Amino acid sequence: PFDQQAISVFLTQVNDSRELTGLSPVDTSTAIKYLLASDYDAPKAIKLYLSCMRQRKAYKLDNVSPYTRCIQKELSSGKLTVLPIRDETEPTVVLVNVSLHDPGTSDPVTAIQAISFQLDEATLSPITQKNGIEIIMDMSDSAFSNIDMDLSRRFLDIMQGGYPAKLNHVFIVSPPLWMRASLRFLLGFLSVKTREKIEIVSPRQLTERLPLTSVPVSLGGLAHVRHQAW
Hints:
The chain is an alpha/beta fold. Helix content is 45%, strand content 11%. Strand 3, helix 7 (149-161) and strand 4 (167-173) form a beta-alpha-beta unit. The chain is globular. The relative contact order is 0.12. GO terms for molecular function: phosphatidylinositol bisphosphate binding. Pfam families: CRAL_TRIO. Residues 68-227 form the CRAL-TRIO domain. This is CRAL-TRIO domain-containing protein.
């Protein structure tokens, strides 16, 4: 059962604030989404909501159209795929293929808009809202030309406090040795709580952390990645 008191507190404070700026009120489903991501802690959920709204405004996420050429290019690239939910008790798995990214032809803001568009769709699921998200950042076969520290920072920044879904873990799989120092530098900009959720693992270690049905075949699991179907 949902905590009606927490829902009431969230709706009252958020909608009072929205009314002052001429915005329409949010509904109960929005309150539940943010409360689930915050363990039904109303002040924490309100803080998350406000942070998310700031991020959405900064990246103009409410004006993103999947039909524009630049967004379509990002969406069809396969850089980010949400794997099918196979068990209602398990988190949603988001696969990031770093080797498919080319910083020379991809604008970081456009990439974030496309990523957020997909995450918006994923977080519509009550299962995702309840069980949270596991991110697999596959760096297998990545070259120096694929690395985009600016985009990585923006992506993790959004996930650590600007999205209405619990971030359970980020598994960075097989980063090149020369990349590890840069990763440590990047992690220094994140909160301690977020850093504790990030692990650098091998494919074998990944299969020990997640169910095989949640790990792509390419990394030793049983999940078939069908990006176009997603």
